[in-house]
Amino acid sequence: MALFEVNRKEDSEIAVLNIKGYLDAHTAPKLEEEIQSLMNEQKYKIVVNFSELTYISSAGLGVFMGFIEPIRENAGDIKLTNMTPKIFRVFDLLGFPSLYDILDLEEDAIAKFK
Amino acid sequence: MPKNKATYHLKIPSQTDNLEVIREFISNLARKAGFQNDDVDKIELAVDEACSNVIKHAYKKTDKKPIIISVEIEKNKFTVSVTDHGKGFDINKIKTPDMKEYLAQMRVGGLGIYLIKSLMDEVDFTIEPGVKNQVKLVKYV
User: Fold this and answer.
1) A61: helix, coil or strand?
2) Which listed residue, of A12, A38, B56, B94, carries a Cα 20 to 30 Å from B122's Cα?
């Protein structure tokens, strides 16, 4: 069984990444690669759906910190959605809700981009 | 829960693909000690952060050097010690970041120690570079 999976789907100019499993120091590079390839394709409107993510450590949060600035400089954003309470608690502990757009549902994030 | 003190050890190569094994080991023992899910999650994350730091910094990602994890379960106390023999660091030089300022600067990494301190009741570092570095994490049941 794969420890971590990231699946990408696109709705016109908006890319949605569904992440699944454990996002830790071992698997974070996989998400990093995926976001980097979106940037290379100049796709800066990104929604990350956390509904199937069961675990996150600071290495996972670091991925979002590494990309948010260049993405916002290109009039884009990384919007985070569908977090379970366990995952949200880690983001909250580090003060992310004041700096990142964290929404209940993927559809909410897509609507905000449109 | 054990009546007196029970001690458990895990010696494991410092590779990121072992983090999952470490988390499993810790969360099973935290449950055995009587913690509820929220606290099990906190202990699991704190130990992951401590071990990720060892893999990334102490051993500079050199594989196969051991991380030694010891867990002591007492009546009301759960202690995890994470020990390595790699390059240490000066804990006095690591300030607990002001998270607002830290996030505003969008600094990548370095969040581990802040998380460890937020998640556990007591955190104690013993650093002897190249000899033995140990972080002791305590949570009261």
Assistant:
1) helix
2) B56
Q: Spell out the domains of chain A, with CATH numbers in brackets.
A: 4-113 (3.30.750.24)
Q: A85-93 vs B112-119: helix axis angle to the nearest 10? A: 110
- Quick check: B16 and A66 CB within 8 A? no
Closest-CA residue of chain B to A85: B38
Find residues 55-94 of chain B whose CB sits inside 8 Å of chain A. Answer: 55-56
The domain defined by B6-140 folds into: Heat Shock Protein 90 (3.30.565)
* Residue with tokens 């450590």, as numbered in its chain: A57
Three-class SS of residue B85? coil
Is the ipTM beyond the 0.85 threshold?
A: yes
Domain locations along chain B? 6-140
